[in-house]
Write a structure and sequence with these properties.
The protein is of the alpha/beta class. The protein folds into 2 domains: about 200 residues, Rossmann fold; about 230 residues, pyruvate-formate lyase- activating enzyme (Alpha-Beta Horseshoe). Helices cover about 35% and strands about 15% of the residues. The chain contains 18 helices and 15 strands. The strands form 3 sheets. Strands 2-1-3-4-5-6-7 form a 7-stranded mixed β-sheet, sandwiched between helices. Helix 4 links the parallel strand 3 and strand 4. Helix 3 packs across helix 4, helix 7 packs across helix 8 and helix 14 runs parallel beside helix 17. The radius of gyration is 22 Å and the shape is globular. The N and C termini lie far apart (about 50 Å).
Length: about 500
């Protein structure tokens, strides 16, 4: 008897200059790890497609390319992940499947659904519910929150019983015992059901990311890790924990926080070393949230890895500790300035000051660690002075050789953020299903620039910042450097 097959995809952004949303490995690869592991062990009567559909940018050929894979692989289940930047593309892929392969069971997940399926978001912004419009017909199951074991449970039941019986089983109570925090939503008859689960999930029990589903080019996606000849090192991203102990006004990340064990991280690192990986970038919200980060870097450096991480400048105030980071293999840190203005920093609840920004960057320069920074414009509480001060400060630091990479973002409305909660009436009217409203210059010069912003973020506003940035530090803007992706050289 032929086994049923499941295929996986990560919907690409429509922004050709994106360096924020569609970096490998994408949320889908983390979510499928337990399922892939059980299939490989013969515990589920499923096969899976051998390569993840994960183009970097949506183009005129994306749907045809995707449907070509669907025709060739002939899956009975397709699991798609998307960010809010690519949710509309995921829906386009679903429409193509509904038209050409209507028998396929479609499971949607990813960061966008993590937000809009959150119970308090559903209550305060019901317009964002994907099942309350015509797009609900494009979704058999929607997964929000921790997706590893909910996807595993869905795939197991759908392959054994079919989608209709799976919905009935989900209502029976067993799905509420799924490990992790999240929910599964689906329509049955005329009702939309949300199955909420909130249970302990041990990150150390989750199988490692199945990187064999990625193309080889994914190893050359980082410009900041190079050998002595200047060629890019084979690099992957990893996480040491989930969650963030901070709660910035514009960000949807937060608690609960959970860390992986040292043994678990090192076991994955040894596997990566055997694959030929030479550099690791830790994509945690802030690496110092993990109180064992220095020991981890030391152990990984002994294995021969070069490393980088997301960090916070308020955690880089002790120059001896920063020197220790460099000693233990850290050659690059990505840190947030957002705006070089104390009023703006206080208003966004950043828990960071301009004095700490100064001291942190000085310590990184002294240690010889490469620096990437994020800046954030379009804030509801910014001023013309805070914007200009930030641009001038970045220029000063770039000219001094203290900053190697500059990322500029525009403040965008996200539902599951403190700011989203404060602006719930406005968000409840926004359309994330039909594509970005600002997919054009100058907005494409910014991360998250193509979406929804406060009223003062006009074309003239964005162009003024972009023109100045290109004149003053354009050679360091990641959107200008980003053309290297997937190339070794």
């Amino acid at each position: 008897m032929t086994k049923k097959k499941i295929s996986f995809g990560f919907a690409p952004t429509a922004d050709p200059h994106d360096r924020f949303f569609n970096c490998y490995p994408g949320s889908i690869l983390h979510a499928v790890a337990p399922l892939i592991d059980e299939i490989n062990k013969g515990k589920i009567g499923l096969e899976y497609s051998p390569l993840l559909f994960h183009p970097k940018v949506f183009s005129g050929s994306t749907i045809d390319d995707f449907m070509g894979i669907i025709e060739r692989e002939n899956p009975s289940i397709v699991a798609l992940s998307s960010t809010y930047d690519s949710w509309h593309v995921a829906l386009k892929l679903s429409r193509a499947m509904r038209k050409n392969k209507p028998s396929i069971t479609i499971i949607h997940g990813g960061p966008h659904l993590d937000e809009v399926l959150e119970p308090w978001v559903q209550k305060k912004m019901p317009h964002l519910n994907p099942f309350d419009s015509e797009i609900g017909s494009l979704i058999d199951f929607a997964v929000g929150g921790d997706g590893e074991y909910s996807l595993l449970q869905l795939a197991r039941d759908i392959s054994a019983y079919g989608p209709d019986e799976t919905k009935r089983r989900a209502l029976g109570g067993t799905y509420q015992r799924i490990p992790g925090n999240g929910n599964i939503a689906f329509r049955m008859d005329d009702d939309v059901h949300h199955i909420r689960f909130s249970n302990q999930m041990d990150l150390n029990q989750i199988p490692h990311v199945p990187r064999n589903l990625l193309p080889a080019a994914s190893l050359f996606d980082f410009d900041c890790f190079r050998d002595i000849q200047g060629k890019r090192l084979e690099t992957v991203t990893m996480i040491s924990h989930r969650g963030c102990k901070y709660r910035c006004d514009f960000c949807s990340e937060g608690l609960p926080y959970q860390a992986r064990s040292m043994d678990n991280i090192l076991a994955e690192a040894r596997t990566l070393k055997d694959m030929g990986v030479k550099a690791i970038f830790f994509d945690d919200s802030s690496i110092q949230d993990n109180d064992k980060h220095m020991q981890m870097f030391s152990e990984l450096h002994k294995l021969g890895f070069t490393m980088g991480a997301l960090s916070r400048l308020d955690m880089l105030q002790d120059h001896q500790q920063v020197d220790e980071l460099k000693k233990n293999g850290i050659t690059y840190l990505y840190v947030s300035i957002e705006q070089y203005d104390d009023h703006a920093l206080n208003s966004m609840h950043k828990r960071l000051s301009t004095d700490q920004i100064d001291r942190g960057l000085d310590n990184l320069a002294r240690a010889g660690i490469q620096v990437g920074i994020s800046t954030l414009f379009g804030l509801p509480y910014e001023t013309a002075s805070s914007v200009q001060r930030t641009i001038d400060y970045v220029q000063q630091r770039v000219d001094a050789g203290n900053i190697q990479y500059v990322s500029m973002s525009l403040f965008s409305y996200h539902p599951r953020t403190p700011s989203g909660n404060s602006n719930k009436d406005r968000l409840n009217q926004l359309d994330f299903n039909s594509g970005p409203p600002n997919l054009h210059d100058p907005f494409t010069g910014f991360e998250e620039g193509t979406w929804y912003h406060p009223d003062h973020v006009t074309e003239d506003y964005a162009r003024n910042i972009l023109v100045q940035a290109n004149e003053k530090f354009g050679r360091r803007l990641v959107r200008n450097i980003g053309l290297h992706r997937g190339k070794n050289g």
